[in-house]
Amino acid sequence: MTSLTRRDCLRLFLFGPLALGLPAPGLTAYHSKNHAQTFLALSEDLLADWCRGMLMHQVYAPDDPVRHGGLMSPAEQRILGRCADAVYPFLWYARRFQNERYIDAAVNVMNWALNNVALPDGSWKNGVNQKWQGISVFTAISVAQALRYHGQLLAPDVEHAWRERLHKTGQWLKATITPEYGNINYPISNALAMALLGDLLNEPDFNQHGRYLAHATLEWITPDDGLIFGEGRSKKVYNGGRSPKGCYPIDLGYNVEESLPGLAQYALLSKDPVVLDAVVRVLRTHMQFLLPDGGWDNSWGTRNFKWTWWGSRTADGCQPAYALLADHDPGFLEIAHRNTRQLRACTHEGLLTGGPHYVAHGVATSIHHTFCHAKALATVLDAGLPAITETDTSIPCETSYGWRYYADIDTWLISETGWRATLTAYDFPYKKLKAGHASGGALSLLWHQDAGPLVAASMNRYTQIERYDMQPETGPDFGTLTPRVELVQPANKYLAWLYRLLERDHEGDATYTNIIDYQADITVARVPKGVQVKTRAQLLDARQQEPEDGAVFCMINYRFSQDLLEIKITPDDSVEGRPLKYIFPLVSKNTEHVERLGANTLRVKKSGVAIDIDANRPLHVETVANERIFSHVPGLEALPLSVSFTEPVILVLKVLRG
Q: Does one domain contain both 627 and 530?
């Protein structure tokens, strides 16, 4: 073996084996695994891009501790309170690429947090002017991982100070974040934080509390479908924590990007077989909701207001769960790989945008997505993949299985020929916001193997439920992306003030729609050459009230067959001549050409395919600046098509290749 010089030894100590061109720990066993190599190379390339992008937005103002070291976010035009989470990926970059500038970046962003959002009791605030301290758990995890893998890059006094601060944070976390604290992602994440801090600081009490939390939160897995629940678990919504239909408060985005990665890492770190077995089982359920392009279908979740197609706005990423447990299921690595490819596709100028069409629509990017997801990739790259004996590059939704029903969320997944669809009548709101996620038998997602996403349900009414963690709508071309039947009626003068107070449409007019009805029904059956879905719902307003002049019901039937989707909307006799409108926002980037083939027919040309939309009545495009509306949920543009009717109306979508 070649002897090392003193300089080589120093570089080896500071930056690890990669500094000398040696294999990285944890990676050597996988050089023969092409699939693992491809995933790791993609992850490293993307993480490096993100680190460079974050550094470009770090404020340099040494004389101003209010700004110096913070990460300025383009969308919010302010420094985000959780930006110290970037400390871990910055140190990863410093070691991987032998770049001391990134050690300075890590120290500076940490100093900004200590000066601006650190509280004397050991906790951290979500922002300079915010009170929420639950995010302390995520800061603790990031700093602990930074010290665990890269602490030797820091000056001894800096490392000591960070350890002291972590000890204080750990005491606050142990005393504060119990199984009943906040949404379920907090106590689950705290199980990991306690395990990390216990090992790093040699505090067995922290390890013990982590084990208690991990085992306690296993009770928050639904017994039938195997989904984590507790995202919006306030008993003020429903006594007993379950809805009238028996549904649980569940959000896919937070589950796959925060709770499950936290439990998975806890189980590996603590060598806990009980938690590990549960996590693997639950991961297999959640992977059913990954689309072939790597997007997560959170069109129905309680916290759908943070859906970003690739995941959730302020969570961390699915990779530490699926990649680090890839030896337990042949398909897990492919789940992580597909999603990472989607993250790459949504990255622009070094930052992860909030969805596939942010750049096309000219919407600024929040840096929050980047420093959160950078932690996830750094975790996988530092830990290394497990020994994988076999991989499966297919994922569940690529099989044409017909349909699957999830009673815990009253939601159906359709997988028929080239179509993938979700229809939901889920009746558990988030904090009583009944105009939040889609319900009422809504077609909340439509995806085709050749055309990609065609429908993606936004919030029924966009509301900044988490004001500091959601971007505002900033123009008339923002809108609801969920297909729906609408009835708009003028409000009487007595109620006009109330409608304005509730931010109702049309300056006092009341809007009634099927996608808010929590009592809707869905039935699914096999028919010749396809699958048929029948839904029946009532038109209600945001308070779930029917029109003053009487109830209105409608039935929507969907028939999925080879490259063809037929949608038939049938109002019942309750319409009584009141004009209805069926609105169908077709996901379409503004660069895609739209051709009018007739009064009732449009053609949208996508890459390699065209979508024909034909109706039995005049088909209109709602007037907007560039014929596209946009929603932050899940970051897509859509062509807002509509048909006015009082009699049954039929829309047919056909996919044309070539």
A: yes
